[in-house]
Design a protein that fits this description.
- The complex is a heterodimer.
- Chain A is of the alpha/beta class.
- Chain A has 15 helices and nine strands.
- In chain A, the strands form three sheets. Chain A has a five-stranded parallel sheet. Chain A has a two-stranded antiparallel ribbon with strand order 4-5.
- Chain A is globular and about 70 Å long.
- In chain B, helix 1 packs antiparallel against helix 2 and helix 8 runs antiparallel to helix 16.
- Chain B is globular.
- Chain B has two domains: about 160 residues, no CATH class; about 280 residues, no CATH class.
- Chain B is an all-alpha fold.
- Classes of the chains: A alpha/beta, B mainly alpha.
- At the A-B interface, helix 1 and helix 7 of A face helix 8 and helix 17 of B.
Chain lengths: ~325, ~475
């Protein structure tokens, strides 16, 4: 037994030491511009720093809700209350439900704008992906969360990608996707949580050139195939979200965006959303070809730009 | 609790420490630990179904004790019948009730009669029910046949039924293998510990690195088969063949390895099934604990191959249909069973399934003729997997139609090929690990596997066989 335990310890020492080194560098690593920081952790950090501010309006979404800006709501605010954009990459109704619970425990929430589309309606618990996991402040899964961060550094592609960035070299195609490219560098507004990407700045600087370049056509190409809807569990979460709205008397708008250039939010899904929520509070853009066929509303094949965000904002009733 | 979860990697060392360092002097205490940790392991998924395992344990414990006490065979038979009715009843209610009700409704609707009411239930399938009910049934049958003496030690019997490494997805253990080990004092052996850890490592590699990487490709191809060419559909079917092998044999490896760490030897469940030269050999290599269960408790009691050709074929068909149904309450599984029966019958008629005449093929047997037979069998088995994986029979036939008659070489999702090749490479190296390599090489291999496992680790991705 002694030999067995000794050998296990000897075998595990390098692994544990490596994991501890990675963990000890957490704060330094997440502040690198090319590392996709966990968004919900970042947003909670901002909210905690702004504890003296009064937030009562929240946009709950994901990367596909970022075209709607919280500062538009703040411009219309008649008192000192503010809006905040609480999004999470890959956010789905599991994330929305947990985030909503967290927010109502901290704030007097009056209004929620919730983005639901064909992808986010599919239920998925955190999948151990550091970038898309919920912050453990929300769901208390500290172990899963920090493990998801550490495990990235057990992938040699991640390590090579970081070395490329540190030595300011352009990575080979084989290593793409592990760290952010320059167009995905972003900055977050420290009051509203609104995010601005390098690509947003590019559009603002030279809109015509951006849309007419061949590069955009490549970005505009739809490569997405929707997963099948696991109806029962999705239904349960939609009902849970609705009951929170009712219990806390929250004024809500459900936005169904016309994602991915085609009707990827199915009729079945739209009907389900309208059946569960008040249909007059559902802004359904899922069958709007004038939007999803118009490339000038997009910044890549799955993300809309601020111009479309303005249209959504104009339809929300106050 | 899943083997591929962070919780399990905290749970297992704790059980190991308590088992060998605190309770090692007292067999009863060790068995109580096995029982409580097994119930805890199961309750992590859903504590409500613990009652079902406990009831199943209780029923077969008392039936087992009382069968030998009966004076007449009639009474013994009655008790055995009680066990079978209870176990099959529980299985039927939780697993097959809706299937039979829905199928009946479809049948009567198809002849023009639409019933006013029919009652399908909103039932959750308790994980592992098909495994532990088969285990308890075989215990009572063996006692009835006087192949086994019942145990009076309830804790040991309950530990046998709920032994956590194999509780939810097998191997389906026989009482005459597992129970004596639980009833006798265990001693830790260094070599068993090392083999156990190695099995856990290779099992995790198969599940996390290979099966979980192929899973989204398979899902995408099977969900969108109407839009894809035949070449890609072949790839999808091959990927699924690798995925289900890695998923299930990976689970079995982890189960056997975990049991070894506790000083218990579980039966082998997989023996390079895709190296089989015909389908009857495949069934002696794939899910061995289930196929041998059906052989011993269904095929042989039905008369086996001793009552003439017609009855033998009938028995083979019954066994394969029930085996298909065991995998799931869906006509796709039934058809998968029938498909395998039709592949099995020719080799049976040629007397190829005779164990003495056809030895199990070994990985080192690489004659051209063997390779051709292996490829042929693999392709046939892969075609069978299309029925297994499809949502319904129509989809399965459409998928197969496109595979065969709309074949093209425009392969999409080729990335999965790398994972299949990686598995083959690792299996070859792993198979020879005790023979050729130095310790440095072995440790290098273990580190490589561990790094891959951690980098791909997705806590809580379910095992396919949990649905069965």
């Amino acid at each position: 037994m002694k030999k067995f335990i000794f050998n296990i310890i000897m075998f595990l020492i390098p692994i544990i030491a490596y994991a501890l080194i990675i963990f000890s560098l957490y704060d330094q690593v997440i502040r690198k511009p090319y590392i996709q920081r966990n968004r919900s952790e970042h947003l909670i950090e901002i909210l905690q720093k702004n504890e003296t501010l009064t937030y009562n309006t929240f946009i709950l979404g994901n990367s596909r809700s970022q075209m709607l800006k919280a500062y538009n709501f703040n411009k219309c605010s008649e008192d000192n209350s503010l809006a905040f954009h609480f999004d999470n990459p890959g956010g789905n109704i599991y994330h929305f439900y947990n985030s909503l619970n967290y927010l109502i425990s901290k704030y007097s929430v009056k209004r929620v704008i919730l983005f639901i589309d064909g992808q986010s309606i599919n239920f998925k618990v955190d999948d151990n992906n550091y970038a898309t996991n919920l912050s453990p402040e929300i769901n208390s899964k500290y172990l899963d969360y920090y493990f998801s961060f550490i495990k990235g550094f057990f992938d040699y592609k991640m390590i090579v990608s970081i070395l490329y960035k540190e030595f300011e070299m352009s990575p080979l195609d084989f290593f793409r996707g592990y760290v952010l490219d320059e167009k995905s560098y972003n900055s977050t507004d420290l009051i509203t949580g609104d995010i601005e990407f390098e690509v947003d700045r590019l559009i603002k600087r030279d809109r015509i050139n951006f849309y007419e370049s061949g590069e955009f056509d490549y970005l505009f190409e739809n490569k997405y195939q929707a997963d099948k809807l696991k109806m029962n569990i999705s239904k349960q979460y939609l009902h849970k979200i609705k009951s929170i709205f009712d219990i806390h008397n929250i004024n809500y708008s459900i936005v169904i965006p016309p994602v991915y250039l085609n009707e990827s939010t199915s009729k079945e899904q739209v009907e389900l959303i309208k059946k569960i929520f008040n249909p007059t509070s559902v802004l359904d853009f899922s069958a709007s070809p004038n939007i999803y066929n118009n490339k000038y509303f997009f910044k890549d094949y799955s993300h809309f730009n601020e111009q479309f965000g303005e249209i959504i904002f104009s339809k929300i009733e106050f | 609790m899943l083997f591929n979860s962070i919780e399990f990697f905290l749970f297992l060392p704790l059980v190991f420490i308590f088992y060998w360092f605190i309770f090692n002097k007292n067999l009863k205490a060790q068995n109580i630990l096995i029982l409580t940790s097994s119930y805890f392991f199961y309750a992590w998924w859903d504590y409500r179904f613990l009652g079902l395992i406990f009831l199943s344990t209780l029923v077969d414990y008392f039936i087992g004790i009382n069968i030998p006490k009966q004076n007449t065979v009639k009474r013994q038979k009655f008790l055995l019948l009680c066990s079978l009715v209870f176990n099959l009843g529980v299985l039927g209610l939780f697993k097959y009730y809706n299937f039979f009700i829905d199928s009946f409704f479809d049948l009567v609707s198809s002849v023009g009669y639409v019933p006013n009411n029919y009652y399908s239930l909103n039932i959750i399938l308790p994980v592992g029910i098909s495994f532990y009910t088969f285990q308890t049934m075989s215990y009572s049958i063996d006692i009835y046949k006087q192949k086994l003496s019942p145990t009076k030690d309830f804790i040991s019997f309950a530990s046998f039924v709920s032994f956590f490494p194999q509780l939810v997805a097998g191997p389906i253990e026989r009482a005459n293998n597992l129970l004596p080990q639980i009833l006798s004092k265990r001693k830790f052996k260094y070599s068993n510990g090392i083999i156990g850890l190695r099995l856990i490592l290779i099992g995790l590699f198969k599940k996390i690195v290979i099966a979980d990487s192929l899973s989204p490709l398979v899902e995408n191809i099977f969900n969108n088969y109407q839009d894809l060419g035949g070449g890609t559909l072949w790839l999808g079917a091959f990927y699924f063949a690798f995925q289900i092998y890695c998923d299930f044999s990976g689970y079995s490896d982890i189960a056997i390895g975990t049991a070894k760490l506790l000083g218990i030897q579980l039966m082998t469940n997989f023996n390079f099934p895709y190296l089989s030269r015909n389908v009857s050999e495949f069934w002696r290599r794939w899910h061995i604990s289930l196929s041998s269960w059906f052989r011993d408790y269904l095929y042989i009691p039905l008369g086996g191959s001793k009552q003439g050709v017609f009855k033998s074929i009938r028995n083979i068909l019954i066994v394969f249909i029930i085996s298909g149904l065991w995998h799931g309450a869906n006509w796709t599984f039934v058809f998968w069973g029938i498909f395998h029966a039709f592949l099995f019958i020719p080799s049976f008629l040629n007397n190829k399934n005779n164990h003495q005449k056809t030895k199990i093929n070994t990985p080192s047997n690489t004659s051209i003729f063997n390779i051709v037979l292996i490829i042929k069998t693999f392709i046939l088995v892969t075609i069978g997997w299309v029925f297994f994986r499809s949502d319904n029979l129509i989809s399965a036939f459409e998928y197969l139609w496109k595979m065969i008659f709309e074949f093209d070489i425009n392969f999409v999702h080729r990335s999965g090929i790398l994972f299949c090749l990686l598995l083959i490479l690792v299996e070859i190296v792993y198979h020879n690990i005790n023979i050729k390599y130095s310790n440095y090489f072995k440790w290098g291999l273990y580190y490589m596997l561990l790094f891959m496992i951690i980098s791909k680790f997705n806590s809580g991705s379910s095992f396919i066989y949990f649905n069965f």
